[in-house]
Amino acid sequence: MELTEALLVYRPLLATGFGIAALLALILRARMNAFAALLLVSIFSALAAGMAPEQAFDTLAKGLGGTLGFIATVIGLGALFGAILQASGALDALASKLSTSSSFKTNQWKIAGIGLLASTPVFFDVALIILAPLILTMAHDRLKPAMSLGLPLMAGLAVGHAFLPPTPGPIAIAELIGADLGWVILFGAITGCVALAVSGPLFAAFLEQRNRMPIGNPAFELDETSNHTTRPIPQPERAIFLITLPLVLILLGTLAGILPDGPIKYVLEIIGHPFSALLIACGASWLLLYPKTVQSRKLMSDAMARAFEPTGAVILVTGAGGAFKQVLVDTGAGEQIANAALGLGFGPLLAGYVLAVILRLAQGSSTVAMITSAGLTAPIVAMADLSAPQLGIVAIAIAAGATTGSHVNDSGFWLVGRIFGITPGETLRTWTVSTTLISVVGFLMCLILYAALALF
């Protein structure tokens, strides 16, 4: 094949390669907003691949609309659900339950579990700021470094943020590769629990045994708790029930597929859809956590009014990721990527993980890494003809890859250092290693689960 002919044949693939390089340059060098950068690169890739302008913009609109029709609703309801839990004090009550007479090591495991539950309805940074005062107080009372409890907490938050819907990342991955949310929740919970144990309490114990846990100089302001001293505190059991409610409903909706037709299957399919499950969770939260005082009702009202502010950017970035994916499909670049990956022996599981790791380390944002790598992996998944459970495992593998190696280009890296008063070097030796453990252990668990499915 002559060079000119080869360039024409692989024009879509080359356009995509240059587009990804441009995306990284725009985000890292030009500091461009991720939504604008993804949209601009999608347009460039479509035109460079040979699409007519009208066809290119039709493709973008199709990708945006097809993705946001589901994503925007789920993320919006998830944000509303999280706002109710946060403003009601349910998360504070659940965390305070830990400050009992339990041993310090037991509390490390409890804190990890709280992090896992708390990050499911609330963003990572929000949950960390909410729970940090309690962690710092508990560590101070036990004369322990704050990071001794901070690492298990943050590992739980990171695992919940990456592996368990209704957080935006796994929802976006599932939508882009066509995975069922029920399977994503099931395998995310299995994988996440193992990854959390290794990267949180066990890693913290490892550092403590070798006197490598940084002492830090926490400078976190405790104003967040003082504002709510007069607020009635709900029972922590209610928080556990409400957080797990939508996850259980979605799982039931997935399992309804194996039932024979009838009224039970009909009802489970309704209440188990993510829209219905989150609406039910929001309604139950409102009924069980309804504020009793005027001040509490005002706090709840303000929180609900602000609930959608942090989700807007995530929704738009996800939509732009859907547009990029559609460009890959319509230009034929996705098929060429899939053929190249399969030719190198990269199946969807390994390809999704490696792409997510590269994008995460290159530009810092785990959400952008999840969305972009899911779009690139989608054509490989389509050609592999995977079952629904296998798709769920691939989604978790991508999420695991996008969690790895939080370092200096990640805003969360600096937030951790500021809250716990540790140096960048200490943050690298603790938080960065912890997120890498989540990624590696998570991927190993995905390999085991994927192999186990092949036996049945």
From TrEMBL:
The chain crosses the membrane at residues 7-28, 34-52, 64-91, 111-134, 146-164, 184-207, 239-259, 271-290, 311-328, 340-359, 390-409, 430-453. GO terms for cellular component: plasma membrane. Keywords: Membrane, Transmembrane, Transmembrane helix. The keyword Membrane applies. GO terms for molecular function: gluconate transmembrane transporter activity. PANTHER family: GNT FAMILY GLUCONATE TRANSPORTER (PTHR30354), INNER MEMBRANE PERMEASE YGBN (PTHR30354:SF25). This is Low-affinity gluconate/H+ symporter GntU.
